[in-house]
Automatic annotation (TrEMBL), chain A:
Keywords per UniProt: 4Fe-4S, Iron, Iron-sulfur, Metal-binding, Oxidoreductase
Full protein name: Aldehyde ferredoxin oxidoreductase family protein
Pfam family, one: AFOR_N
InterPro entries, sorted: Ald_Fedxn_OxRdtase_dom2, Ald_Fedxn_OxRdtase_dom3, Ald_Fedxn_OxRdtase_N, Ald_Fedxn_OxRdtase_N_sf, OxRdtase_Ald_Fedxn_C, Tungsten_al_ferr_oxy-like_C, W-dependent_AOR
Top-level lineage group: Archaea
Protein family membership: Belongs to the AOR/FOR family.
Annotated SUPFAM superfamilies: Aldehyde ferredoxin oxidoreductase, C-terminal domains, Aldehyde ferredoxin oxidoreductase, N-terminal domain
UniProtKB/TrEMBL annotation, chain B:
Keyword 4Fe-4S: yes
Sequence intervals crossing the membrane: none
PROSITE patterns: 4FE4S_FER_1, 4FE4S_FER_2
Protein name as annotated: 4Fe-4S dicluster domain-containing protein
PANTHER family: DIMETHYLSULFOXIDE REDUCTASE CHAIN B, OXIDOREDUCTASE
Residue span(s) of domain 4Fe-4S ferredoxin-type: 5-34, 78-107
Keywords: 4Fe-4S, Electron transport, Iron, Iron-sulfur, Metal-binding, Transport
CDD domains in the record: DMSOR_beta_like
Source organism (scientific name): Geoglobus acetivorans
Length: 633, 161
């Protein structure tokens, strides 16, 4: 059965492994992936634990539907205490690792302790082995995966690995699978590095039995076709996420020169999505995905000749383009490739680099700190060199590698004003000043500034209010510059994205940027045919609420509250300087923001300080953490 | 025989999503598991390779010809079908398949191969890019065919290197 995949608990201190069943009751409460990860972590990480201490726990989870042929259901969740925020650290990764983990017999892994020497974990045919990785330490993320495949003798083995950034405990280091699948945005790679854990490898072929294969096939095909035939998915499958850039820079919501501007204007034209096509060999996909949103790119001549990689995504255009003032696809491709080989979150890296450039411009950082490097806008070498310095922890790179909060303590408190972050977590290079719902979303996200916890992407389409009411079940104001009702919209998306992360489905195949894409009700039959568990749409929403509130409680226990739910101060003080008339001259209105935040708390059943109310916790069945999970070891 | 259709593979369109594989194993064995699938995608993202490997239903089929107990027969769709009542599991057919498209089911020790799903291939339905197609002779454009075989062979050769 799909439901017979196990939980593996691994203690690297004691060199001990335990294998446990996952009770169906827990599935009904949390599904899998992100939801179940956080159930486990909430009950195993005490608030006083430092993210880099051996007591921190790393949870790996395949979604409930991971491995099935629809909606990009191939995803894996990696969760831990976040080294940048001290709260929720959580990554959702595409690629092929999750399906392979399930075929190896497991759905969830909990890893605690610290290995004495570099180590990797091999999950194979229902068993778990801890092996030496001394010969693999120092290798980049691509080389190490190839070496591991050779070593375990399985050309279908999939690994989740760290690179130099993770080994060096760069606070925003990634885990990687394949060429570009990143468990990004939360320092998961750094936590692996702190455990001396180079890789987790899944190998095996234990059949995944399903409840009703015939119905599952028919329904998968139907829902898959519907998702891939939306205009959004079709364009995405041709241009990839760079398609978002064209709207973004013409309108004026892409962070430019570290948010001093909200678009590069005409300067940014070379980075339009169509210009990437000349480097594109073909489109490739994650397991179980028919949208195939990523390019395989190749640079055939010039300075970066010979680079072959996958992507780059929209985020890379911001990180190594507008953010630092370089407008050249080849440079973006090169940086993208480097970041993936280093195993570092390129959004956080790009945002940190852009911040450092502005600090240089304003005199917070000088050539003395950079080893003579002049951090001047548009200087390609300066960008690549500073990025490398961060990954290798040299000069000012050593300070920046600890994350924005810690770095600002050393560079000077006022420098934090120029950091685009929430809870210490760097933001994507977008500019949310003109879109209050986006601003609220990044600010309330449990993992710190982030666009993938709630971004109500369809906000920008100005859909008729009847359509919005049908989707959200509430009246939602159509105008994307409005504040009222947007708290409800953000709440709804937090639930949806939690559910899809817990199912292992890709967000791009949900109501993310298309109103016609699948949502809660469409997952009901998939879950039933795959697992035999019957859940209603309402029950699914409640699971999303339970899971999200569990994360919120983890943050609350770690000292977070309303004070941490604000976007960067700059958004309230400085108006946007460029863009189309309706985007120019915009900044956030503090009073209206407060109102929106309160509406959001009310909708969640949290008090005015953002703490879940007692009756909400009772309704959702969230108990006090019992921390006994790992005592069995 | 002109009513026959052919299952064709176009590797340059394959994205490596494995939806064809998963669907095939679900349809034939009710499970997700690639060792049950009759189509298998050679996928190596580091080398940039995605090649779906599947039986081409050879006219003068080596698998069928080599079978000493005549366990392989041709059905009305032109599919070479294994009759498991007769199959003794000698695996000779696996060895002689020039495409490596006759696979071993490790559970039974017997071969498994594409049966064209009774003329309604599920892999084709799940393939979003047309990397696997089920075409009638009229639909087969010779230019496309040339390209398909060229790419297929090229892909296999690159794999060897
Ligand atoms: S299994 Fe191989 S030999 Fe037999 S018909 Fe198919 S391709 Fe030809
Ligand atoms: S036609 Fe049917 S049996 Fe043959 S590979 Fe496709 S799904 Fe499998
Ligand atoms: S479904 Fe099509 S694109 Fe996906 S792996 Fe199979 S042949 Fe390739």
């Amino acid at each position: 059965m799909v439901l017979n995949r196990k939980l593996g608990i691994i203690d690297l201190n004691k060199n001990k492994v335990l294998v446990r069943e996952i009770p169906v009751e827990l599935r009904k409460k949390h599904l899998g992936g992100r939801g179940l990860n956080w159930y486990y972590l909430y009950n195993s990480i005490r608030p006083d634990i430092d993210p880099f201490s051996p007591e921190n726990v790393l949870a790996i989870g395949a979604g409930l539907l991971t491995g099935f042929p629809a909606l990009g259901a191939g995803r894996t969740q990696i969760s831990t205490k976040n080294p940048m925020t001290g709260g929720v650290g959580d990554s959702n990764m595409g690629g092929a690792f999750g399906p392979q983990l399930r075929l190896a017999g497991f759905d969830h892994l909990l890893i605690v302790g610290k290995a004495e020497k570099p180590t990797y974990i091999l999950v194979k045919d229902g068993g778990i082995e801890i092996r030496s990785a001394e010969h693999l330490w120092g290798l980049d993320t691509h080389t190490v995966q190839k070496a591991i495949r050779e070593e375990v003798g399985d050309d279908r083995a999939e690994s989740m690995v760290i690179g130099r950034a993770g080994e060096n405990l760069v606070a925003f280091a990634n885990v990687m699978n394949g060429i570009k699948n990143a468990g990004g945005r939360s320092g998961t790679g750094a936590v692996m590095g702190s455990k001396n854990l180079k890789a987790i490898v899944a190998s095996g072929d234990i059949d995944l039995e399903v409840h009703d294969p015939e119905k599952l096939l028919d329904y998968s095909l139907e829902v898959d076709r519907r998702a891939r035939n939306t205009k959004w998915a079709k364009t995405l499958g041709r241009l990839g996420t760079p398609l978002l850039y064209d709207v973004s820079y013409t309108t004026g919501f892409i962070g430019t020169l570290n948010w001093q501007y909200n678009t590069p204007g005409e300067d940014g034209k070379p980075l339009e999505a169509e210009n990437l096509e000349k480097y594109s060999v073909k489109m490739v996909a994650c397991i179980g995905c028919s949208v195939h949103c990523r390019h395989r790119v190749k640079i055939r001549e010039g300075r970066y000749r010979g680079v072959v990689t996958e992507g780059p995504e929209y985020a890379a255009i911001g990180a190594f383009g507008t953010g630092v003032g370089v407008y050249d696809w080849e440079f973006v491709i090169k940086c993208n490739e480097m970041a993936n080989r280093w195993g570092v979150d390129l959004i956080s890296l790009g945002t940190t680099v852009a911040w450092a450039f502005e600090l240089f411009q304003r005199g917070f950082i000088t050539e003395n700190d950079t080893g003579g490097l002049r951090l001047e806008w548009g200087n390609e070498n300066a960008v690549l060199d500073l990025a490398r310095m961060i990954v290798e922890r040299q000069n000012i790179g050593n300070v920046l590698a600890d994350g924005m909060l810690k770095a600002s303590e050393k560079i000077g408190k006022e420098s934090l004003y120029y950091a685009n972050q929430t809870k210490g977590h760097p933001n994507l290079l977008t500019d949310e000043r003109g879109i209050p719902s986006f601003a609220l979303g990044i600010a309330t996200s449990t993992r710190g500034a982030d666009h993938l916890r709630s971004r109500p992407g369809i906000d920008l389409f100005q859909l008729p209010e009847e359509t919005l009411e049908k989707i959200y079940g509430h009246r939602i104001v159509s105008d994307f510059t409005a504040y009222e009702t947007k708290g409800i919209m953000v709440w709804w998306h937090e639930l949806l994205y939690n559910v899809v992360d817990s199912l292992g489905i890709c967000k791009f195949q949900t109501v993310f940027n298309s109103a016609n894409s699948p949502r809660f009700e469409d997952y009901v039959p998939l879950i039933e045919y795959a697992t035999g568990i019957r859940l209603t749409r309402e029950e699914l929403m409640e699971i999303g609420e339970r899971n999200y509130t569990t994360e919120r409680m983890f943050n609350v226990l770690n000292g977070f509250s309303r004070k941490d739910d604000y976007p960067p101060e700059r958004y309230f003080r400085e108006e946007t300087k460029r863009g189309l008339p309706f985007m120019k001259g915009r900044k956030l209105d503090r009073e209206k923001y407060e109102m929106m935040l309160e509406e959001y708390y009310r909708q969640h059943g949290w008090d005015e300080n953002g703490v879940p109310k007692k009756e909400t916790l009772e309704r959702l069945g969230i108990a006090e953490p019992d921390y006994s999970m790992l005592e069995v070891l | 025989m002109t009513s026959e259709k052919y299952l064709m593979v176009f590797p340059e369109l394959c994205t490596g999503c494995r939806e064809c594989e998963i669907a095939c194993s679900l349809k034939h064995d009710g499970v997700v598991g690639y060792q049950k699938s009759r189509i298998r995608v050679i996928r190596d993202v580091f080398e940039g390779i995605e090649i779906p490997v599947v039986c081409m239903q050879c006219i003068d089929a080596p698998c069928m010809n080599s079978c000493r107990v005549e366990a392989i027969y041709v059905d009305e769709n032109g599919a070479k079908i294994i009759d498991y009542e007769k199959c003794i599991g000698c695996r000779r057919c696996i060895v002689v398949c020039p495409l490596g498209a006759n696979f071993l089911n490790p559970e039974t020790g017997k071969p498994i191969k594409c049966d064209l799903c009774d003329g309604d291939p599920v892999c084709v339905k799940f393939c979003s890019t047309g990397a696997v197609r089920y075409l009638s002779p009229e639909e087969i454009n010779s230019e496309e065919l040339r390209l398909a075989s060229k790419n297929y062979i090229k892909a296999l050769i690159e794999r060897e290197m």
